[in-house]
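In practice, a research group might receive sequence data for several interacting partners and want a quick structural hypothesis before committing to experiments. The following worked case mirrors that situation: the sequences arrive first, and a predicted assembly follows.
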Amino acid sequence: NAGVMQNPRHLVRRRGQEARLRCSPMKGHSHVYWYRQLPEEGLKFMVYLQKENIIDESGMPKERFSAEFPKEGPSILRIQQVVRGDSAAYFCASSLQSAGAVNNEQFFGPGTRLTVL
Amino acid sequence: KNEVEQSPQNLTAQEGEFITINCSYSVGISALHWLQQHPGGGIVSLFMLSSGKKKHGRLIATINIQEKHSSLHITASHPRDSAVYICAVRPHTGNQFYFGTGTSLTVIP
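A structural hypothesis for the assembly, expressed as tokens:
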């Protein structure tokens, strides 16, 4: 049973380009979470998705960032017109149960390290 | 103000020492996670707990809900325990976890 997969592991973009980060949850998990870890800072919640639905995007910047989790395929975090401040590690996690469930345990992927030149 | 505070921020120990990392939080929670992150690496969930104490190998995690405090203990520490340990809490309401900034542990042979 493979864990949470993320790709690419490292991504380099120039300012103004688009970045697409992919996350495949653990088998059987339909809840996906994206987190951002800025250099020297803790992890911050960005968005919570369930298949085809965005449940909570309160932590995601209103502009340039979007996320989806289609019926088929991985969840995608998309950053348009990247800026240097977007350089960070982006982690995806998945869970079997919903975020509010008592026994919700999240399993993390290896992260994508985005560098904006 | 961060909802989750960890101490110490950095910790260096000799191999074999008993280690304690503390986590205090300011919100009512339904669960608390202890996570481990190796340099440049991914994140591994060590424990999820909502009350009492859990043990896994040389790792022990305790939580005191009334005092809003949790501790992670490592017995007989080993250089391979060197990593950043992160405390994360899930409030009663909302979907997100709040994370501490982590405790960077270095165990010297």
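Before designing any experiment, note the following. Chain B touches chain A through 25 residues (CB under 8 Å). The longest strand of chain B covers residues 29-37.
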